[in-house]
Write a structure and sequence with these properties.
Rossmann fold
């Protein structure tokens, strides 16, 4: 993946706005305020490519980023934030579900989970739904810089059990110090290498 040439493409608020399926896509999903924007900026080696907000629910469309001539990254709205109006939550949910179900060029969904917390129902529901739909996914346990060495392994095992994951189905990651970035890039490249669009 060529991170030297990155541009914001567009923000999609309905399916008619989706770009042509002429590049493979990797989507990034996670609960509101889980650190999705920080992860994307660290992955892209850009400080402010993806806007970071202290206000959950900031991302309100599917934000497409063109990564060289290789791939598009799609930043999905965060889920599980109660202060966003229910109608807006429902609209997001319908848009995200339709995108994930119908997008033929989608190679992988990266599900971002905060390692500091016990398994959350919404994360489990998304992971189980992706399994049921046979949509490839990779889970990233982020904010690993905020837990000690002994707690890191314990928390990771607890999340593995709670979400029914094998160790090779997830990556440990820190947006603060970049730990896990190379492993994440390697894992995403593997998904991109799996067959044609």
């Amino acid at each position: 993946m060529d991170f030297s040439d990155i541009e914001f493409l567009l923000s999609v608020h309905n399916l008619k706005q989706l770009p042509e399926e002429d590049f493979p896509e990797i989507a990034f999903a996670g609960r509101s305020n889980v650190g999705k924007s920080s992860l994307l900026n660290t992955l892209l080696a850009r400080k402010k490519m993806v806007k970071i907000s202290a206000r959950p629910g900031k991302t309100q469309g599917l934000n497409f980023f063109q990564i060289g001539d290789d791939v598009r990254f799609v930043d999905l709205p965060g889920y599980g934030y109660a202060k966003v109006p229910q109608g807006m939550q429902n609209a997001w949910q319908a848009l995200i579900t339709s995108y994930l179900e119908e997008r033929k060029c989608l190679k992988c969904v990266v599900v971002i989970v905060d390692i500091r917390h016990e398994p959350k129902l919404l994360d489990s529901q998304l992971i189980d739904w992706l399994r049921d739909q046979k949509i490839p996914f990779l889970v990233v346990y982020t904010k690993i810089d905020k837990v000690s060495g002994s707690a890191l392994g314990k928390n990771a095992r607890q999340l593995d059990i709670g979400h029914h994951l094998q160790e090779n189905q997830r990556v440990l990651f820190s947006a603060l110090n970049g730990r896990g970035r190379d492993k994440l890039i390697e894992a995403l490249t593997t998904f991109l290498d799996k067959g044609p669009l």
